[in-house]
Amino acid sequence: MEEVPHDCPGVSSAQAGRGASCQGCPNQGLCASGAAAAPDPAIEEIKEKMKTVKHKILVLSGKGGVGKSTFSAHLAHGLAEDENTQVALLDIDICGPSIPKIMGLEGEQVHQSGSGWSPVFLEDNLGVMSVGFLLSSPDDAVIWRGPKKNGMIKQFLRDVDWGEVDYLIVDTPPGTSDEHLSAVQYLAAAHIDGAVIITTPQEVSLQDVRKEINFCHKVKLPIIGVVENMSGFTCPKCQKESQIFLPTTGGAEVMCRDLKVPLLGKVPLDPRIGKSCDKGESFFAEAPDSPATLAYRSIIQNAELSWQPYLAFKN
Amino acid sequence: MLRVQGKAVHQCDSGWVPVFVDQEQSISLMSVGFLLEKPDEAVVWRGPKKNALIKQFVSDVAWGQLDYLVVDTPPGTSDEHMAVVDALRPYSPLGALVVTTPQAVSVGDVRRELTFCKKVGLRVIGVVENMSGFVCPHCEECTNIFSRGGGEELARHAGVPFLGSVPLDPELTRSLEEGRDFIQGFPESPAFPALSCIAQKILNEAPVGLS
Known about the structure:
The complex is a heterodimer.
Chain A: H1 28-32, H2 41-49, E1 53-61, H3 68-80, E2 87-91, H4 99-102, E3 111-113, E4 116-118, E5 120-123, E6 126-130, H5 146-159, E7 165-171, H6 178-186, E8 194-199, H7 203-218, E9 223-228, E10 233-234, E11 241-242, H8 251-259, E12 263-266, H9 271-279, H10 283-286, H11 291-306, H12 308-314
Parallel strand pairs in A: 1-7, 1-8, 2-6, 2-7, 8-9, 9-12
Antiparallel strand pairs in A: 3-4, 5-6, 10-11
Helix pairs in contact in A: 2-5, 5-6
Chain B: E1 10-12, E2 15-17, E3 19-20, E4 28-29, H1 47-59, H2 79-88, E5 96-100, H3 104-119, E6 124-129, E7 134-135, E8 142-143, H4 150-158, E9 162-165, H5 170-178, H6 182-185, H7 191-205
Parallel strand pairs in B: 5-6, 6-9
Antiparallel strand pairs in B: 1-2, 3-4, 7-8
Helix pairs in contact in B: 1-2, 3-4
């Protein structure tokens, strides 16, 4: 991968190729000539690659730690329960790649073939890609600035041999920065079905979700809906419910109503979810009757309604 | 969380004036949140722009005489983290407080954060295990919703101090929602002794008055 200088101003910036930090960069001439600000040819290449991918779904959150990767993994598990549905899960959280662990694929390696990088297959119909598979040790840190992360995301979208896929689920890091912009920009020419946004019930979390919703509007990314995670806890001993993450402003329900975005559902806390993820197993298999499992299944059904029209083409 | 949303940042001769969160003016705050026109505005910036603002937060804010500067960071090991380490390096930072939740998936990411600290020469003051257990207010049964012990084990594996575990407490969430001082409001909470103990350990490391 190309080395970029520490203080790269960004290839589309007015300073591109002209800033002090550009001296010595191998791309300096390219940027100074304005060629780098031209549309990236990778966008067309990715459009071609994505022709075999029917649905693309981004999973976003404003805050970290709200259960985004857990949701992405279980959305993948849920969709892949139908053996005739081909599912791909792409983890673009470059600094914190949790997906390999949650999917029970820690330690797996990525192989190259004539047609590109092969995803790691959990099942015949469920393939996974993550920077986690490219790291040799669980202690390795990915200390990369934006441009290098963007390069990795480009490679994931362009160079992975996804094959014929019904659903590509893209798990993202929290926020609205390089990774999110890159994912949207590189997929610009290929149709993205939309984004699912994960939150917890409290206002401190919702504040960031509103920003995430505004980001989606800004980059014209449709919103499939919002999932409220960690929504209530039932004590296993006395069966009484407590709210740990208090919905002091009405939770996601009120926010979704105000902003006119769909609420896909609410998932209660269940200690078995964390345990399953830690073991790399599907929570659906671990606790099929849990209220959390039922909530997840209902959310997946609600989400499917938003890409219903495309199902007609599939059949 | 500190009940100063919507406040404006002013300029003075020595730079931007941070916002005081209490009457005694013992805690001041700077955040990009103060620079947004609307609270729901998304800050959709790539790395270089974020780095520039972080540098300004360190060098262009008139912090005045401070005993402690606490820097809250986003998750990860990227632009923001490198920018703030670079900006603070000339001022010999005391180190990093690394927060994790107990479960393995969280610890899996935080291991990498510890490697980051090592690589950039940032000392680790210690690891805090947050959301460590929930005591049911109805029957007092403690449930480890996000598992338990991962933070302590991580600290041991990495050879850094373990500062303590903070349990889940809805009153802490409520305080943050309402911007109230949790320490003042809920001294009976199970989270209070945990937080106090951690704060005390840090104070012991670098008492006020010692350079």
